[in-house]
Amino acid sequence: MTNSTSERQSEEAVIAVVIPSYRVTRHILGVVAAIGPEVSRIYVVDDKCPDNSGDFVMDNCTDPRVTVLRHESNQGVGGAVMTGYKAAIADGADVIVKVDGDGQMDPELIPYFVQPILNGEADYTKGNRFYDLQEIGAMPPIRLIGNAVLSLMAKLSTGYWDLFDPTNGYTAIHADVARHLPFEKISRRYFFETDMLFRLNTMRAVAMDVPMSAKYDDEVSGLKISSIVGEFLFKHVRNFSKRIFYNYYLRDLSLGSLELPLGILLLMFGILYGGYHWIEAAQTNTTTPAGTVMMSALPVFTGLQFVLAFLGQDMASVPKRPRHLGRLVSYRGNQLEK
């Protein structure tokens, strides 16, 4: 695709921005004002904000692109984004960008999130604050450590081994992919971004990181790492189990379908067998026979090799072909032929 074609697509594609609004009245007008002319529609979703941010935007914002949507009850960032997605899809958007209203995300980066989708390189793009080593130093240490741990867990549960910074909420998605999301099943609150990646992987959508920086000024984060570690761990294990079942047993069978269970069984046998005889030897003050040691070590080493082989295959199976390519929308609702 030539640069001129890409530029025409950017100019003529209908780009919508969704802004979840909850206690962001100090920043949201500045966020809206910074959104460039490449965006056709802006949806501010008042998620039962105690500051009545929806009314605040209606009273103080004159941008004709802005539509305020309201929730009767607080649904969390995930619920707000899903409401915005539905409205944007109904209004004929081609690409939907999600930007937070707290001023941490630079709206000038929107074209960088949209272009890979219009170019047919990705179905979904998300920010990554870890590309620039100098920028990392500006990130609060607790967020740096927390994001590193969550990124490792997310790679396992989502299957996107080439992505990092999974809790980054600066995202863009092709409308043809968004319309197939299970809106009612996606996590509504802090696990939303990671759960989105899990759902996208089960759809075999292509996701891509976009380098960005973040600002940390006077906004107050409601995310407390200590309070969500247990919840996140449970949900990651749940999503990992679902993904493995969907991708390796329900939809397809491959060598990995055998490697993972066989590796786990061998590991468990070796650990339990060896542990039992180690405890027995310690209690009786005897030496464990070499054959018993080998009967424990061999299954452990073999099982570990099977698990590593499965992980290698899982990493190689990251979606490569964008799902929306068959119905690529380049110009205001017109579809290109395959």
Show the helix and strand layout.
Blueprint: H1 3-12, E1 15-21, H2 28-33, E2 41-46, H3 53-60, E3 66-70, H4 76-90, E4 95-98, H5 110-118, E5 124-128, H6 133-136, H7 141-158, E6 171-174, H8 175-178, H9 192-202, E7 207-211, H10 225-250, H11 255-284, H12 290-316, E8 329-331, E9 334-335
Parallel strand pairs: 1-2, 1-4, 2-3, 5-7
Antiparallel strand pairs: 4-6, 5-6, 8-9
Helix pairs in contact: 7-10, 9-10, 11-12
Keywords:
alpha/beta; Spore Coat Polysaccharide Biosynthesis Protein SpsA, Chain A; 12 helices; 12% strand; elongated; two-stranded antiparallel sheet; 2 domains; 7-stranded mixed sheet; 338 residues; disordered N terminus
Please explain how this structure is put together:
With 338 residues, this protein is α/β, with parallel strands linked by helices. Helix 9 runs parallel beside helix 10 and helix 11 packs antiparallel against helix 12. The longest helix has 30 residues. The chain is elongated and about 85 Å long. 37% of the residues are buried.
